[in-house]
Amino acid sequence: MKHLDEYRDAASVQTLADAIHKATTQPWVLMELCGGQTHTILRCGLDSLLPAHLEIVHGPGCPVCVTALETVEKALAIASLPNVIFASYGDMLRVPGIHTDLLSLRARGADIRIVYSPQDAVRLAQANPDREVVFFAIGFETTAPAHALAVQQAHALALTNFSLLVSHVLVPPAMRAILGSPQNRVQGFIAPGHVCAITGYEPYEDLARRHHVPIVVGGFEPVDLLEAILLLVQQLESGRAEVENPYARVVSREGNRHARRATELVFETTHRKWRGIGELPDSGLCLRPQYAQFDAEQRFALAHIQADEPPECISAQVLQGLKKPTDCSAFGTRCQPESPLGAPMVSNEGACSAYYRYRRQGVESA
What we know:
11 strands
């Protein structure tokens, strides 16, 4: 904890908040792109320290939240099969499908296991050679290297009963989609520090130039986030649009070359459907042809499964920074963590769950 104290120091937080007030002379809308950042902002009340005309909106930075409904339906279809062990990170189990979720399916007898790494799923396949073991590979660029290494490990072990249901998504294409929308309100981005630790911040430089939008790499502690906000305001006020990296203790321009190489060896880019947003070109990862035998979607012939979002859920607008969770008429009543309408209310990184936990004042629970 001693290494984090300086990034949580109350005096430093107040100094940065004062500097932001002094620097801000007109309204601006900034977006953070990580669910962990969302939760820090709300948990610590950082938004309450900002000028009233400086708005922070929340983007599609939660991997659970952006996993498409039809991908969840594919997971449910696989997990329902009698000879399958379906392995997943725990926060995917309560993400609602059309009629049920993985947790309810497990309660009815499906063999669904919570794992903490993809290597756990590889070990399950080794220990159960007569069962199909499917790992639900979700996440941004952050988790892709570990998933790639699991595929390489399964290949080296000549496992024929191991596969991945891949739902990897990439941050820069989502930013391009937001900036290209006629409804866009975002004028500056806090880039996700954990993603940039893998990819580096170089991929964001072209975005900043092409769209003339400032981008600042942000960490996850209060001082990190306020420093990123201050740098964004200073850029906007001066008419600049650059990539800045105050999170240099973790992030470099080139990122983690070994992790990037592991991802590139196993995955290639593909079009990907995002929950609530739709299909974005070259916004996801899929297995390269030489690893197609590990593709669960092909193995179980699931390409035909499609699904539309429930109309009552406004997660699409929340994930694009167009609305706040409290703008939803179902927030805190018909939509709660125990009975969610959408993934952002379930995930520990979801904006709706953050608002439910920290900003529920005046909302009647039912």
